[in-house]
Write a structure and sequence with these properties.
The structure holds four protein chains of four kinds. Chain B contains 13 helices and two strands. Chain B is mostly helical. Chain C is globular. In chain C, helix 14 packs parallel to helix 15. Chain C is α/β, with parallel strands linked by helices. Chain D has a single domain, classed as ABC transporter involved in vitamin B12 uptake, BtuC (Orthogonal Bundle), CATH 1.10.3470. In chain D, helix 3 crosses helix 4, helix 5 packs parallel to helix 7 and helix 6 packs antiparallel against helix 7. Classes of the chains: A alpha/beta, B mainly alpha, C alpha/beta, D mainly alpha. Chains in contact: A-B, A-D, B-C, B-D, C-D. At the C-D interface, strand 1, strand 4, helix 10, helix 11 and strand 18 of C face helix 9, helix 10 and helix 15 of D. Bound molecules: adenosine-5'-triphosphate (ATP) (2 copies) and magnesium ion (2 copies).
Chain lengths: 294, 312, 508, 368
Amino acid sequence: AENLKVAIVLPGVKTDKSFNQAGYEGVEHAAKELGLEFAYSEKVAQPDQPEALADYARRGYSVVIGHGGEFQDSVAKVANRFPDTKFVVVNGTEPGGNVAVMSFDFPALGYVMGYVAGKVSETGKGGYIGAQKLKFYVDLGNGYAKGFKAARPDGEVLTAWTNDWDDVAKGKEAALNEISQGADVIFPSMDNAVVGSLQGVKEKGKKAIGIYYDAISNWPDTVIQSAIFDMRGALLTLLGEAKEGKLEGKAYIYGLETPTAARIGTYSAAVPAAVQSEAAAIIEKIKAGEIDVH
Amino acid sequence: MSWAGDISSLVDFFSTVLRLSTPIVFAALGGVLAERAGVFNVSLEGCILGGAFGAATGAYLLGTPVGGLVFGILFAFAIGCVLAGLAVGLGINQLVTGIAINILVLGLTSYLARLILGADATSTLPGFSPVEIPLLSSIPVIGPVLFNQDPLAYLMYLLVPLAYWFLYRTPWGLNVRAIGDYPVAADTVGVSVPGIRAVCVIASCVLGGLGGCYLVLCQVFVFTENMSAGKGWIALAAVILGRWNPALVFVACIFFAFSEALQLRLQFNNPDVPYQLFSMVPFVASFVALVAFAGRVRPPAAIGTKYVRGGK
Amino acid sequence: MTAQGLRLEKISKTFGDFKALDGVDMTVPQGTVHAILGENGAGKTTLMNILYGLYQPDGGRILIDGVPQRITSPRRAMELGIGMIHQHLMLVETLTVVENVVLGLLGQGMRLSLAEHARKLEALAKSFGFDIDPHQEVWKLPMGMRQRVEILKVLYRDANLIILDEPTSVLAPSEVEGFLEGLRRLRAAGKTIIFISHKLDEVAAVADRVTVLRRGAVSADLAVAGTPPSEMARMMVGRDVVLTTLEKVPSKSDEVLVRIRDLKARDNRGNQALKGVSFDIRAGEILGVAGVDGNGQAELAEALTGLRQAEDGTVELSGEDVSAASVYERRHRLGISFVPEDRHGTGLVLDLPVYQNAMIRDFREAPFSSGPMLRTASARKVAEDWVNRYDVRLQSVEQPIRFLSGGNQQKLIFAREVECRPRLLVIMQPCKGLDVGAIEAVHRTVLAERERGTAILYISTELEHILSVCDRVAVMCAGRITGIISPEEATSERIGALIGGLEEEKVA
Amino acid sequence: MLRAIQGIYMLRPVWAVLLSLLVGAGLIAIAGVNPGEAYAALFGGAFLDYYGLASTLAKMSPILLAGLAVIIPLRVGLLNIGAEGQIYMGGLFSSMAALLLPEMSPFVLVPLCVLAGAVGGGLWGLIPGYLKAYRGINEVIITILLNFIAINLVSYVAGGPMMQEGAPYPYSEEIREGLWLPYIMPQTDAHLGVVVGIALCVVAWFVFRFTTVGFGLGMIGKNPAAATYSGIRVRRNLVAVMFVAGAIGGLAGTFEVLGLKHRLYHLFSPGYGFDGIVVAFLAQLSPLMAPVAAFFLSGLKVGGLIMQRAVGLESTVVEAIQGLVIIFVAASLAFRFDRGNWRRFLERRRLLDTGLAGGITNNSGGKS
Ligand SMILES: Nc1ncnc2c1ncn2[C@@H]1O[C@H](COP(=O)(O)OP(=O)(O)OP(=O)(O)O)[C@@H](O)[C@H]1O
Ligand SMILES: Nc1ncnc2c1ncn2[C@@H]1O[C@H](COP(=O)(O)OP(=O)(O)OP(=O)(O)O)[C@@H](O)[C@H]1O
Ligand SMILES: [Mg+2]
Ligand SMILES: [Mg+2]
């Protein structure tokens, strides 16, 4: 058969070291592994999103990915004009027809991170920093808080929303603020701004949780564990199904049971071995459905 | 409020205020200089970004923060030359030039950053570390906030009075003020309008660039695309709020940073109030301050206009 | 060729299609006062701007002390020892007097020593009989005071060749006297002075030689001594000019049209500028208001026309109290017309073409509009008609009015304010900067209005003009009317005393 | 000769575009893409392709209206940096009307929604207008601050009280299809907004050119003292003009909601208000030129995106090229043609030539 052509539309820049970059690299990786042809558009503002999706469909791309929940609606509109094209909404909520949605089990990973953080925390206070209250990031934060409390029933998680995904300085200030409130394990979940938060945590000698990739490689003294939402793995799986023509209009949610897509990263030495094995047990319980992370 | 009672928390709070205000102060001083000379420098945003990019590149390539500072200043200087050439030399509309330069700088810095910094973009760059000033830094609350800072913050302390002195106490400053208000009069007494305007614009951009340098070399130690994130616009607002007077502009920047820091704080105490409402606080506060305290503020009269000699 | 002094050879300058200067030759020996006369628009200012480096000539050359010089900028001119007082004030209004004076001054180093300069400036001012506060911001000063600052600015620079482009247009007579005396002293000190003025008596009093320009070319160059002023006027305009009194028919009506009682108002700085002014004007009567500039005249005019809110007092027109009427109402329903002092700033929109300036007052009425729509064609026709009847010299009514000479701009304003058939005409400084021909034209217009039965308030610092056209003269000092007298009783001592605020008389 | 020079002069924006593209070609080539191909995609895509043209027109709607919202006050002497905030308020008010008003005939409800959007933007313009006219507070700073406030306000509403239950992104419920603006090109997103925009431009042109109201406003812009002198109520007019400008900015937001997204999204305008400033000056404040400038700018933006998709260029290059084009075009427009200067220049050359032919150079000008 002819090559499957895949396109991804990114709302931000592909070098944000975060959500957008993960999406871009995910498609790139999957395309290489599976031998697909791929294209991308970055920094596509909201008003241009429907046209970007439609244009790729017209150009003969058979899988078009909208990278982010804001594509849900645009995809829904465009999809019925192109019945032969499969659309995927990353972090979408409403599958159906030729629209699939793909997301991660944010609460579950958040729970595990929260549990580890709660065990490591000396002050009993954790910190979560998001940019905007999008559903998945709220879920992630809630999971984190729940896990934290599971590890430390008297504990508490401070939450801050910076209202900006990329403002590094604000990211840093938010972290410093939480630290000055007594939080000592911070979990930032923005885009570029994460770097600022980690910087702040590092300066104050506190601990942090990484997101999307194994952040300990860049922040060896600061990051104790990372919630790896591996777009590469997820998209590889998803596009693999697409290549075999099995992509359906349903929700593909990758959680701890699909470690290629969602898993925990490397522990730093700051996390005692006992805690590590407790966490492993927690993961198993979540997989088995014994813990409600929501 | 709970945090107010506790000294170390207070120090943290004011440190936050200072950190948030420093890049804006740099840019706003640049804005004062350009606008006093009659040029509306909308490209401050681009200058901050360009300075940040230059700082990152310099620090990355040369491995020292001083190298970063030099590169940052050079990059902002180059932007200043472009703006001066276009807006002062050719007399192209200052707003359009500024906005176009912002777009260009955003594209170009991202493009070059991908080219030069590439995969190393996440790693921490060398930066300045705080220098404690003996004695002064041991003053309670104020000491650790003001006198345990990085070199660029000290530079800012110097620049504010320096800018004031320059504008109001030197013949050059007099020339600048005259040019911004009634360039014809300045021209007829032999003051070179385009020359001084060009110098002011370039200096203004360099100041904006210093704001960018501070972001990279003293605050976050990485470069990220579009990391200026609207600070240039806030600086412009501060220039007007401070009535084109360096000292008042400094106060306006501090006021702004204070409300920003306050809103970040307030969020923790009131997690149930939507954060967007808090995000509005600095802007609403500035708005209220403006309406409450500003009388009729007259901008330099010749702002935004091209000066052509001759004509009746 | 004169070794010492200035020589201009065959200077020409074109603006667009218009030849403003056409081969002008002029020689000014060192240590003399040289006057330039010419109608409005003759090219005097243009010539001086070329000499000062503001314009580049299209042809010809400039020799200073026998050496050809290219004067590329005012800075170059200053280096050559040239200083200039500009016809339109070149002051930065937000700066103080002393700041304006030291602006651009060479050799100041890094420090702005304002206090020291202020002291020197005060001494200099005193030697010219001027009284100024060096630390006052310029925007707070009345026009006459600003003109003094402009003069001091140049004198302070100690130039060798001083160009004075209409330096005395809003000075009071006593100040003019001191100023002319100062010029003579400068001449005695060996300075060269080029003096442009429309006031022939000033020229006669101080100049050695005079060059007369007509339409961009030199029409005469002669010694002042032995040339009567009427002869100079004739050479400027190309015909005889009535210089003194115009014949007046006595006022016909006894109807008091305007009644003003105890009018009070504040100026822009919030100071009490009008402290209770009362007077009447009958239909067909011209009431002159004399006095040193800045004694409340501007506030009086503005309060009458509604541009300034009166604090207290009443303004009655034909018995109707109009104190509360808006500007629009006063202009249209009540028929108040106003020729403002500042024709560029208030009376005209310089960027608009002549015909649109003609409709500024009445653009909401026929024939300039019908309903919400402008009637451009008919506006052009009206403007052309006015241009013909009031002898406005221009190339086309489509020209931006910026490019008309001051006299012609003034004539258009008069046409506009008079053609609407006003009941009350308020005129302020109507002859500022006008040549003798234009002044005559303006005064004819004023007298024709009087004939028609309009009440006219004629505010001016030019006592001579007031005495020649007005039926009665009110003198203002410090926001009060110090006396109202008839021109016949107006001896210079009496007026001088009134202007100084010495004599209080019963209000007529 | 003079005519030829004038012809070249008339086309100067075109030369500017070509020149900037030449510079941009360098960037594209360094990025490893064939510039010819890239530009073919940009222009072919934005202006010649059916769908591309539709995109251009869809984008032109907010940009043109924002441009008009800048032009009108600027002609009256006010600099409206706040079109962005007015767009947001327009979007907010119109979507609230569309979602909250009771069911009624679209013929009533659509105009009501549009009106609500216009009023929302208008009120947001009224604030700086009032403060400027009656309090003398600089309108630039007020509009900058109001931009930030409006953006956050919409974020709050779209992510809070009006957010759709369980939505993955802060946006409101969908507005029902009966209230959508009609499309002007089938199968595309091009909606009626651009037509309204052009119509408003013509109206604005007509008002400024042919009516007494427009004449009065123009006078305020050129010399407010003279306007007061002529009996115009300057303050009142300033406030009214800012209301109208704000309303037009509000329409831009309204049409984004009713015509394109059909929901209130947070951050729905990616800086159209600032594009409006560029349009205003490229059009040299002429309402009739505004559609041309807006069409060009939207084409450039849409074409940039198409170029990304067609040849795989990074957004950074596209942005850099957009900046270059705007700078060059603005530069070319600032370049003034002075007939007299050129004629004198040619005349001097002719004199010189004849002089040289005759063997003597007697340049009577004699400039040293
Ligand atoms: N920049 C310019 N562009 C076009 N025309 C001009 C310009 N400056 C002056 N002119 C024209 O040149 C002529 C000479 O003007 P100039 O100001 O030299 O007259 P003037 O003799 O000083 O008159 P006045 O007595 O009114 O001051 C006038 O017709 C004027 O309209
Ligand atoms: N002479 C004055 N001194 C101080 N304040 C004034 C004066 N005149 C008007 N104002 C202020 O200006 C505002 C506007 O006055 P007014 O009612 O005349 O408004 P308007 O008719 O809309 O404007 P305009 O008269 O300029 O066309 C008022 O709020 C008043 O406080
Ligand atoms: Mg003159
Ligand atoms: Mg009023």
